[in-house]
Amino acid sequence: MKKVLSIVCAAAMMCITVAASAQDKKAERNYGPYQTNGAASNWFVSLGGGVDWVADGILSGANFGKCTPTLDLSFGKWVTPTVGGRLGYQGFKNAANDEKFGNNYIHGDVLWNISNQFGGYKVDRIYNCIPYAHTGLYIGGANGKEFALGLGLLNNFRINDRLAIFADLRASALRGEQVYGAGGACILDVSAGLTVNLGKKLTFSNSEGAGDNGALAEALAALADAKDAAKAAQKEADAAKKEAADAKDDAAAAQKEADSANETAKALQDELEALKNKPQDIIEKVTNHIIAGPLTVYFELGKSTLSAMEKQHLTYYFDNLLKGEDAKDLKFVLTGSADKSTGTAEVNERLCIERVAYVFDVLVNTYGVDQNNITIKDNVYSDDQDHPEFSRAVIIEH
Q1: Residue 350 carries which DSSP code?
Q2: I need a labelling partner for 115 at 20 to 30 A (CA). Which of 150, 164, 175, 345 fits?
Q3: pTM of the predicted protein model
Q4: How large is the angle between the packed helices 280-291 and 308-321, nearest 10 degrees?
């Protein structure tokens, strides 16, 4: 009979769990962040009963006791949809002496709702799976009290906003002196009952309701946006500051270049004024000294007349040299030349004579030089292999 009852209960719990999971898929879930309702909200009280089973003397030879009835009472609060705590009392019969409520366990539990943790919080979720850790004191029996700790699994099945059915599975470890007196004991408890939600409606929400981040999320988002905007503004300010510094450096460099250009211009102006103030005779002496040097005019290969370019050189020379009153009294010496690398000796001799005669005629008939002031030197024949064109010339000295 007991086995049949156990199978029926397990099947019923499985069906409820499947139905709860199916409903979870349809409901809207909220993954936070959450805005809680304050200190007066999310409290609950649970009352139930069940059985416990004791294994004593684990460290010195096992002594397996029988199942005894137990009473469970607890009072707790959910701080967030995933974390809560409760204080509990468990009274059960001492299996060693059949004393009713011979042992009493006062414990504190830390609850973790993994359904909300991994599935998102929902007000109307039917099933919540809540593992927990517990610790406290076992009081009673011949040896007074002793410390115990362990783990448990709380299963909550929602009826409405205020009521829920719970099924609690708990394992406790202690020295064992409270039970049979042997060393080391393990107590397994199975209890079920009713949970009543107290205070305000047992819910956690955003300001806009489930599935929405609400006022807190909006505030956090606004804060993040403001922080990003501040960073962007700071970045722009730094860029503007750098541009201003670069512009200042460029302006300083430009001013330095302008000052240098002004100094150079002033120096050139001073030199120009100094040149303007020099006596005219010094300028003329310098000019005459430049012009007083010998002039060489060049002929093309086999030619005894000057090209237009060389005529221009000769014109410039005499226009500047013979502009003074005593220019006609200047004496000139003409020397003709030809290169030995081209032509025969007879041809080169003839070219030298013809070239000197051509320049002689220009000086007398074009520039009015007295022919008695012109002297003709012997011809020169150069064997310059690198620049034979330099030897096809007439040198004019005065």
Answers
A1: H
A2: 150
A3: 0.45
A4: 140
Please determine, looking at this structure, whether the domain spanning 28-212 carries the CATH number 2.40.160.20: yes
Identify the sign of the CA torsion 203, 113, 206, 120: negative
Comma-separated ranges of CATH 3.30.1330.60 domains in the chain: 282-397
Q: Which two tokens stand for residue 120?
A: 């998102």
* pLDDT in single tens digits along all 398 residues of the chain: 344 335 434 544 544 444 444 444 444 555 656 655 677 788 999 999 988 877 766 555 555 666 778 889 999 998 888 899 999 998 866 655 555 556 788 999 999 999 988 988 888 899 999 999 999 988 875 556 788 899 999 999 999 988 999 999 999 888 766 555 556 778 888 999 999 988 765 566 554 444 444 556 667 778 888 989 999 999 999 999 999 999 999 999 999 999 989 999 888 888 887 777 665 555 555 455 445 568 888 888 888 898 888 888 888 887 776 665 455 677 889 988 887 778 788 888 888 889 899 999 988 888 888 888 889 887 776 666 667 777 788 888 87
Rounded to whole angstroms, the Cα distance separating 376 from 357 reads: 9
Spatial distance between the Cα atoms of 117 and 26, rounded to a whole number of angstroms: 18
Provide the 10 A C-beta neighbour count for residue 349. Answer: 15
- Pinpoint the alpha helices (H) of the chain: 2-26, 114-119, 214-276, 280-291, 308-321, 345-361
Q: How far is CA 23 from the centre of its chain?
A: 46
Domain at 282-397, CATH class: alpha beta
